[in-house]
């Protein structure tokens, strides 16, 4: 049986600000330099997702596009089903997504569609200026990516949560998202 350990990060940052950095397309560039765009292809009724102890905030099909990390690699596109949840006590927010097949939604010219086995995060407020965050991203790039490119891009991916916390802290100090 495969066991995936999900590291939990204790952050000196407001949970709401960390969520804003991770979820808001206008702020996504702060944590992912390869991100180009996010588009909600179809919103689905939130009543279709029922999980005890959680309220469904968003449910739908989403596509995202990412720049190529190097000239020898094609840019990537993803098509996922996404659900965003909030705990009924209001202390936690989760975003969960997984690739879906939709033959009617063609891969954009020049892109390769990656396969996201599981991706998402949970942010839990533990104090007004502190939170814990769990972040998971397991994907198949759907094609060969040279090892030097992987070695260059993977450390950046691993720093997503730290970058979100840094952006939230900068926002707290300056009032600006940059």
TrEMBL record:
Top-level taxon? Eukaryota
Which GO CC terms are listed, alphabetically?
Answer: cytoplasm
What Pfam families does the annotation carry? START
Gene Ontology terms, MF aspect: lipid binding
Q: Boundaries of each START domain copy?
A: 1-154
Q: Entry's InterPro entries?
A: START-like_dom_sf, START_lipid-bd_dom, START_lipid_transfer
Protein name stated in the entry: START domain-containing protein
Q: Source taxonomy lineage? A: Eukaryota, Haptista, Haptophyta, Prymnesiophyceae, Isochrysidales
